[in-house]
């Protein structure tokens, strides 16, 4: 009976631990982005999913001609898988479909750096990144 | 014992089975090579192996079968061949007295020519298969250049063999009409003395050899069972001893490059092209694919070591030549263009293929990018829509 309790306790700890890990990093990342946004724009009041949606869906200029929008590869519906221009499938961006999205700082940095350069022809601002993650976290 | 006269002896069952076996093999080989899809190579190779076994048995049988089927009794002297030609041209045939117990002189010459031609086909085919596809018994031994040479010989001899078979058929028709007996039927049922065929002379001394006949039957049995149980897949190179650096670079390549497209086997471009790719990652086919300097440097060491020049196989040789204007695009290389010309663009857009860059969708042996990439012809299968 005692050993059963221990096993149960361990399992519970594992489950809550995993859940905390899944939610924690993204909140930390968004908090860091918010601090950065505040520094960039003193008028910043908070991230906005609607702004993020517009940013995700609209066609931008200044980037490379083959990739005018995020949706070029990710598709209009972030809950559906996307496809790279080379034909490889991309897992959905929506956190509801892919819970590990936006939890790995290194991965986030790498893809924002590359894809902002491809689509916008410049680095993204902290506000743009935060809006983007906020929008996709709610999808 | 003085020479005596007997009716024409029948063709043995062995010779008849081997004959029709060779007929089937030749047509199956021509069909799979000239009319089949590239993946028909698997059947072609199986047919070729069967042909090899049939030849082996026929050669042993020719040493120890019934005397009129032995090579030693083939009437191949120059004078005999002249005599036979004159008899046919002057229509004094069959000559008074006796017929030839086995093949007549010109027929025997054609049989020898056919056997030599087919033997050359089997040998050149095996060498080509080993050198080009790196498969079969010689897969690990033959350099690509030798394989390619053998392949050219193989293709040329195939046409020659077709002409020789035509000559053989013509000879059979002429001989059948002159002798008044159906030679084709004789090759099926064995009995070949027709109403007009004169008796034949049997040699004064008959060789007592029985050993070779037995040996050929045993070879036939062993060969057939070997064919049934043997596979003819490609020879996979043994896993090489890997350094940590090597394993690390392979992992970077698979992970970083494989994130957006298939991690192409490096054998598909020469080292100079890979250098170009690494130097222009910020504008990689219209996208920014920049990597941290440490990863680029790891790949700068790894890619040239695995580039086209490092492989003595078909992919490695074919992809050393790139398109001058587009030296980093694999699908622009002359070889790629030439070999995918017949595939409609819609096929590449199929959902289960995606793009021209998804080699693996059809080349089912393309696995780890660290090896030569496979691309064995028998492993090509375009998935259904």
Please characterize this protein's 3D structure.
The complex is a heterodimer of chains A (139) and B (385). With 139 residues, chain A is mainly alpha-helical. Chain A has a single domain (2-137), classed as Cytochrome Bc1 Complex, Chain D, domain 2 (Orthogonal Bundle), CATH 1.10.760. In chain A, 57% of the residues lie in helices and 3% in strands. Chain A contains 5 helices and 2 strands; from the N terminus they run αααββαα. The longest helix of chain A has 39 residues, at 2-40. Chain B has 385 residues and is mainly alpha-helical. Chain B folds into 2 domains: 4-229, Transmembrane di-heme cytochromes, Chain C (Fumarate Reductase Cytochrome B subunit); 244-379, no CATH class. Chain B contains 13 helices and 2 strands, in the order βααααααβααααααα. The longest helix of chain B is centred in the middle third of the chain and has 36 residues, at 144-179. Residues 231-239 of chain B have low confidence and may be disordered. At the A-B interface, α4 of A face loops of B. Chain A: Residues 58-102 are annotated as: Disordered. Chain A: Keywords: Heme, Iron, Metal-binding, Signal.
């Amino acid at each position: 009976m005692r050993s059963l309790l221990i096993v149960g306790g361990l399992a519970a700890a594992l489950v809550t631990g995993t859940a905390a890990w899944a939610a924690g990093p993204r909140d930390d990342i968004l908090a860091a982005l918010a601090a950065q946004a505040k520094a960039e724009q003193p008028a910043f009041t908070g991230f906005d999913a609607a702004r993020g949606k517009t940013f995700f869906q609209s066609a931008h200029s200044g980037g490379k001609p083959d990739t005018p929008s995020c949706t070029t590869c990710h598709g209009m519906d972030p809950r559906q898988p996307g496809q790279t221009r080379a034909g490889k499938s991309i897992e959905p961006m929506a956190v509801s479909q892919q819970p590990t999205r936006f939890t790995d700082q290194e991965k986030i940095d790498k893809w924002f750096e590359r894809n902002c350069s491809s689509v916008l022809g410049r680095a993204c601002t902290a506000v743009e990144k935060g809006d983007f993650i906020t929008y996709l976290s709610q999808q | 014992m003085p020479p005596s006269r007997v009716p024409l002896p029948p063709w043995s069952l062995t010779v008849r089975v081997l004959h029709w076996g060779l007929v089937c093999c030749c047509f199956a080989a021509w069909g799979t090579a000239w009319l089949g899809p590239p993946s028909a190579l698997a059947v072609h190779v199986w047919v070729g192996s069967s042909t090899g076994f049939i030849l082996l048995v026929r050669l042993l049988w020719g040493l120890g079968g019934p005397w009129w089927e032995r090579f030693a009794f083939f009437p191949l002297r120059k004078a005999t061949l002249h005599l036979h030609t004159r008899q046919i041209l002057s229509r004094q045939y069959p000559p008074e007295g006796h017929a030839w117990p086995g093949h007549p002189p010109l027929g025997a010459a054609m049989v020898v020519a056919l056997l030599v031609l087919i033997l050359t086909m089997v040998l050149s085919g095996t060498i080509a298969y080993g050198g080009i596809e790196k498969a079969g018994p010689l897969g690990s031994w033959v350099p690509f250049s030798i394989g390619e040479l053998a392949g050219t010989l193989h293709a040329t001899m195939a046409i020659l063999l077709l002409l020789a078979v035509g000559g053989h058929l013509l000879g059979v028709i002429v001989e059948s009409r002159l002798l008044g007996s159906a030679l084709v039927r004789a090759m099926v049922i064995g009995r070949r003395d027709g109403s007009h065929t004169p008796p034949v002379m049997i040699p004064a001394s008959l060789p007592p050899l029985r050993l070779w006949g037995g040996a050929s039957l045993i070879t036939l049995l062993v060969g057939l069972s070997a064919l049934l149980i043997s596979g003819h897949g490609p020879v996979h190179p043994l896993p090489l001893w890997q350094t940590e650096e090597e394993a690390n670079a392979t992992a970077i390549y698979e992970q970083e490059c494989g994130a957006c497209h298939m991690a192409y086997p490096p054998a598909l471009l020469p080292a100079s092209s890979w250098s170009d790719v690494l130097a222009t990652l910020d504008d990689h086919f219209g996208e920014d694919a920049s990597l941290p300097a440490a990863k680029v440097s790891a790949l700068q060491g790894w890619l040239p070591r695995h580039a086209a020049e490092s492989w003595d196989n078909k992919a490695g040789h074919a992809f050393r030549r790139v398109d001058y204007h587009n030296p980093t695009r694999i699908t622009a290389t002359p070889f790629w263009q030439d070999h995918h010309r017949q595939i409609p663009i819609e096929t590449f857009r199929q959902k289960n293929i995606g793009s021209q860059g998804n080699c693996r969708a059809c080349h089912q042996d393309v696995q780890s990018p660290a090896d030569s990439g496979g691309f064995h012809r028998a492993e090509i299968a375009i998935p259904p829509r």
